[in-house]
Design goal:
Length: 293
Amino acid sequence: MTILDGKKIAADVLAECQEEIEALKAKGVIPGLAVVLIGEDPASQVYVNSKVRKCGEMGIYSRKIELPVDATQEEVLQVVRDLNAEEAIHGILVQSPPPPQIDEHDIINLIDPRKDVDGFHPVNVGKLVMEDPTGFVPCTPSGCVRLLRESGIETSGANVVVIGRSLIVGKPLALLLMAKGVNATVTVAHSRTKDLAALCRQADIIVAAIGKTGFVTADFVKEGAVVIDVGINRVEDATKKRGFRLVGDVAYDEVAPKCHAITPVPGGVGPMTIALLICNTVKAAGLRVQENS
Ligand code: GUN
């Protein structure tokens, strides 16, 4: 059984990005990312801070914009309009999920697709469907596919079950996995799927992206399967200083012994997501340079 080291592979991905960052800097361009956080959701705060910290480590410009939990739709839209117009910003990310009074779709639709480093805008979703490489692909799914590729896991012809159909992970991941070059046969399962455990037992690769602690148990997994755990859930843990620890959607202890390979939580998909966000920001800056030359 191999534990897939997301931290190590993310570091390799970032090393490649670093070269592109230096090349842009040599042309007088510093890639810039704006991260918008609405409200005080503790998990979102942690993710946003990790993204901003990584930008700093990589020598790219970042700005965290924090709006109060009762911010209005118009206030958020205005922030996005301003960021769309700002030269120093190449990438815009509005952390999800926003508070309930905010219509996330309207916000996403307003982001300039050329700055949509999350890949959530309909233009970029369309480009993903069409396998047009000029678009932006959502960071977590592209991180999962990169993790599989760099780990030498065969996807061509593999039966993959993706559990979860979200815009952030499940749907774009299914598209990436079935694309030319990756060539998996993909089944997307969700809360209404019948006999999920039996379906998953057919899978060579299982991707869990449902947000439920320990949802994927040993009876979901055939011997020798690969398991990718996208979940990041908090469980109370009095032995930890902060009072909780992070666990995935997979019951790791019982599943890992059956696997050919498995991602840990933390240290699996999470670092890949941040690495791919940096890559997307650098790509956005590079495309802008091309556009202006
Ligand atoms: N919330 C959880 N994952 C993500 C992500 O990749 N992007 C944004 N904007 N919000 C998220």
